[in-house]
Amino acid sequence: MISSKLKSVDFYRKIPRDLTEASLSGAGLSIVAALAMMFLFGMELSSYLAVNTTTSVIVDRSSDGEFLRIDFNISFPALSCEFASVDVSDVLGTNRLNITKTVRKFSIDRNLVPTGSEFHPGPIPIVSKHGDDVEEVVDGSVPLSSRNFDSYSHQYPVLVVNFYAPWCYWSNRLKPSWEKTATIIRERYDPEMDGRILLGKVDCTEEADLCRRHHIQGYPSIRVFRKGSDVKENQGHHDHESYYGERDTESLVAAMETYVANIPKEAHVLALEDKSNKTVDPAKRPAPVTGGCRIEGFVRVKRVPGSVVISARSGSHSFDPSQINVSHYVTQFSFGKKLSPRMFYEFVRLTPYLRGYHDRLAGQSYMVKHGEVNANVTIEHYLQIVKTELVTLRSSKELKVLEEYEYTAHSSLVHSFYVPVVKFHFEPSPMQVLVTEVPRSFSHFITNVCAIIGGVFTVAGILDSIFHNTLRMVKKVELGKNI
């Protein structure tokens, strides 16, 4: 009794199979309907699994506070690590010069290949002593030129050379104490009788090629040549041996004494024999014609327009702008915290159109062929920064909220009368882009699937009914029967 009442509410009453009729048209429509259902179901599933985001622009609410981190890795094939300096300034008046705490330098050759481990320069003090100021200076050092430089450098076990420029303020201050020191050393170590050390000088305005060959970028530069080479090995890399101490006569004489302290008197004779036999110390290598520098690290700046400047800087040297070449290759220049591989994957998954803009300058080279036409070239980069914040559906705290900075870059080469530099002008935007991942409702997905299956089934049934009835009418007409 109860079962019969339940059967009365059956929506799907069954018709005996022998009372139904199959047709080729119905079979064709059934196949088409099944394929349509599968196709539409696949499309709906793909839409359900696809990433769905909303984008809005809001005021910057960075979690980093008022500071912004800048990571960089830049190679300069013609700028020496000896004078390379990283400076930071902004519109609020902040000026930080020669940052070293978070910056590392590596000597490289002209092909950007490292020539050793990290560059650790000795202390370069702001020289306070320059010796006596006398009205008349007696030349005690030997003038050197391209014609006699090699012969002198191989003739004496130690040759200390002052590379100077007459227009340089620091060179003129050094001149009296240098010449007096040369006279004292000549008296103590006679070049003819002793010959262990000789002091010389090179005017770089007259011997530009010689100074360029020894990569002289700042004046005055005091180089120490031992057996014809000024190259020394320091912590795994080869560099020019230079004097960085005080420049008064007493300090210079004391330094010269230390250079010859461990050299026997017979060394001068041995040096002459080596020169006559044309033997070369295998431990000595010729210095590179142009020593370069790779500068990497990071700086923290305020979130206001400012600049990162890389240039040749020294508190006790002058520079010839025409001899400074700031051509460079950018390996990395990015803003904000570094992203882990998982975080970067999430960024690419949600915002594939942003790929490549977080490090826009990476892989770019800015080379200037140094010469009279292209001398004194400053290279400037203008960077406009926009922060992008992603709110994902991940449960992990690390991946819940992601932050990244994208920027556009415009570069230009500017001719200047001053010492060439590389400037990275940055301008953070006060707004940020907020990208939020929106979840898709599973109930909405099920509803759409049911609508697809039911709709296709119903439409196919209607089409089959129309087609079947049309065929019956055509057959009746052909048999001459009344409709």
From TrEMBL:
The membrane topology of this protein is: Single-pass membrane protein
CDD domains from the xrefs?
Answer: PDI_a_family (cd02961)
Please provide the record's keywords in A-Z order.
Membrane, Signal, Transmembrane, Transmembrane helix
Q: Which GO terms describe its cellular component?
A: COPII-coated ER to Golgi transport vesicle; endoplasmic reticulum; membrane
Q: Which Pfam families match?
A: COPIIcoated_ERV, ERGIC_N, Thioredoxin
Locate the Thioredoxin domain: which residues?
124-261
The reply on keyword Transmembrane is yes
Primary site of residence: membrane
Classification via InterPro entries: Erv (IPR045888), Erv_C (IPR012936), Erv_N (IPR039542), Thioredoxin-like_sf (IPR036249), Thioredoxin_domain (IPR013766)
> Which family, according to UniProt?
Belongs to the protein disulfide isomerase family.
Under which name does UniProt file this protein?
Thioredoxin domain-containing protein
